[in-house]
Design brief:
Distance between the termini: 39 Å
Shape: globular
Number of helices: 4
Number of domains: 1
Strand order of the largest sheet: 1-2-3-4
CATH superfamily: Shew3726-like
CATH architecture: 2-Layer Sandwich
Largest sheet: 4 strands, mixed
């Protein structure tokens, strides 16, 4: 049975803690902290960068990835981890969300 889950960004606001990015998401009932590893942020788009600016720009992409992770029951004690391998798998699907424009776009491989 497929589970449809729609997440919205919530508190905590996107922030960097150590090397990783963190943001909050909720379905209106439960809340999760999404942890985006430094390597995942770097793999998201070129140029290779792991910054608060990148985290904020791609927050919607990471939220969408979190929805898929929860649907697969891979969240852990209120945390969702997004690793480089998750970003690479998403890129292999050929679609990413451009948070700045709110439109789907093709993702080019990093050089």
């Amino acid at each position: 049975m497929d589970v449809f889950l729609h997440l919205e960004l919530c508190e905590p606001a996107p922030c960097l803690f150590g090397e990783n990015g963190h943001l909050g998401v909720t379905d209106g009932t439960s809340a999760w902290v999404v942890v985006i590893t430094q390597e995942a942020m770097k793999a998201t788009a070129g140029p290779v960068e792991a910054s608060l600016k990148r985290l904020v720009r791609y927050a919607d992409l990471y939220r969408d990835m979190a929805e898929a992770i929860i649907a697969r029951a891979q969240d852990q004690d209120g945390k969702i981890w997004i690793f480089e391998r998750d970003v690479i798998a998403r890129r292999a699907q050929g679609v990413s969300r451009d948070a700045g424009a709110g439109k789907a776009m093709a993702v080019r491989p990093l050089s």
